Amino acid sequence: MIKNGLSPEYYFEKVNLPTHPQENPESLLPVKPFWLLANLVAFDAGIADFGAQIAQLTPVHKVESLTPLISNSTNLKDLLQSFCDSIPSQNTHARFATEHNKSELWFSYVGIPLMKNDIQMELYRMTCMIQLVQLATGSGWNPEQIELLMPANEIVKASSLISKSHITFSQARSGFPVPNILLNLPVNIDIPETIPTIRQYDINADFTRIIRHLIGIFISNKHCSIDEISRVTEIPVRTLQRRLKRHDTSFSELRNQAKFNLAKDRLKNSTSTITEISFQLGYSGPSHFYHAFHRWAGMSPSQFRAEQKA
User: Which CATH class is domain 207-309?
Assistant: First the structure.
């Protein structure tokens, strides 16, 4: 959005996503609001290939949490299979697959789209897939044919990578064939010499950690209710409550943990007054924040701050 001269804050607010800067640019956030965001920006700002631009600005192989999972691939065939195997740990909805026959390997998206006829997601997904293959073939390669889930739409011509291929629409999958002769080509993934320690999120297994993480992000906007987390995760409130109870916790307990962690961080690393921090955390006044913090830490906010500076 910045590259196109747009205000991210304006559009983030439109889809009810937090607008404050994140320390970790890959913070876990709900997928669907981001695709609503992409469609909104594409339509509102008249950027037909916005989904493709996102993929080109941050290729999928440079996503920090995915890079280590595919970095040891020795050839193109190995890379595509490693990618397909790794994606379920990154996204609850996305599924990719390879299918081999005598002359070619089909590389396809086989998951269920989050939204019907989502053009920008198709552009993003297909651009990412072509870029992966180009790690071995070079940037001059494009698939001869592409199948797309979406119905026929002239907007695909806006994407330079996709428009070079023969396209068929309304297919059962989104994908393209890679000739067998290319599968043994070595891959060249530009990976930093030192890959930082990465918190791997298994979003299919660690439900409590995901909800805690989401609360930690949204709590910075001061208003974080179970209704809001229910909305962004598309999990009904009662179901959310039951699932948290099965994990021996509750929404209020996770929210209190998030507030405590954020309070400690701001007392330690910011120059905000205790009154300012209390309002930043959604308290009606410093006395309520004082009592809550004392209950969590066994000391007052001012004592905690003094200890950190000692």
Answer: mainly alpha
